[in-house]
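hey so u asked for the seq, here:
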Amino acid sequence: MTIRQPAVAGMFYPDSASALNSFITDMLDDSPARDLSPKVLVVPHAGYIYSGSIAASAYRLLEGMKNTIRRVVLLGPAHRAPLEGMAVPDCDAFSTPLGDIPLDTQAMNNLLQLRQVHKSDIPHNMEHSLEVQCPFLQMSLNDFQLIPIVVGDATPLAVAEVLDSLWGDEETLIIISTDLSHFHNYEEATYRDNLTVKAIEQLSSNLTGGQACGCHPLNGMMKVAQRRGMEVITLDVRNSGDTAGDKNRVVGYGSFVIQ
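ran it, structure tokens below
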């Protein structure tokens, strides 16, 4: 059995199981409960001190679904390695300080029939956009399998084809990992991110990397949402200047439900 070991534990989130458990528990407890049963969550992927509370507002919604969801399809952008198309890892589990998450290797192998998907550990080895979601999932769900997909240069239609093939029923949750704008001052970032939020709420599939670093997976999700008549509900929008950073050079974060 091949296991991907955590690459950013101790940097993006605590590397101690007890500290990680407490940190996530506190963030979830501080998030409002809402009467929503999401099919899709859109969440940020910075260090927990920066974006964890924004992500927690989405993961809190899984409280009533922890025994229903058995499979999580997780898409995030490639930060660490150049990538054409989309990549699934060549391993059997993802490890975090909270334990191992089994992967749905059969579904991952089936994806290889699509020309835009290939199998490679290289985009996954150091990728944080997927890894930082894993402890939240472990704290929010019971028994589940994960399908982690790093998305590189891929068209919205190519991503949508993958999502459609994995859509499933209520047992399948889809997560899109993305931050919003990067490295503007607080006022400029707030202005830009508010425009991006409006575009997301309108199911725009033309988002750019300047609006959201995960624009490729998010644009594909928007294509699916358009076709399936879904709606976006905005949960929380802030930036690092609101959480743990200064306001001179900030990164924007948003959490959304698509249902």
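The first helix runs from residue 17 to 29. The first strand starts at residue 3 and ends at 4.
lmk if thats what u needed
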